[in-house]
Amino acid sequence: MKAEEYRYWQSRPAHERMDAVSELTTAAYALKGIALGVPRLQKCIVIFPRLQR
To answer: Cβ of 17: how many Cβ atoms within 10 Å?
Structure first.
């Protein structure tokens, strides 16, 4: 069964596999009660100046 499932996912295009991973991740966080629809990073906390070359 695992080998068959592995072959199936290997036959799918990369974008479809990534969509499935995203869907599973969202479902897992929903089970924990964490909403992923809200952006996490609201603003920069620290800004480091760049050295001039």
So the answer is: 13
Q: Could you tell me the two tokens for 12?
A: 């799918």
Model's pTM, two decimal places?
A: 0.58
Q: What angle do CA 26, 28, 29 make, to 5 degrees?
A: 65
Length of the chain: 53
Structure token digits, residue 43: 């603003």
The type of residue at 12 is R
pLDDT of residue 12: 96
> Are the C-beta atoms of 36 and 26 separated by less than 8 Å?
yes
- What are the extents of the domains in the chain? 1-53
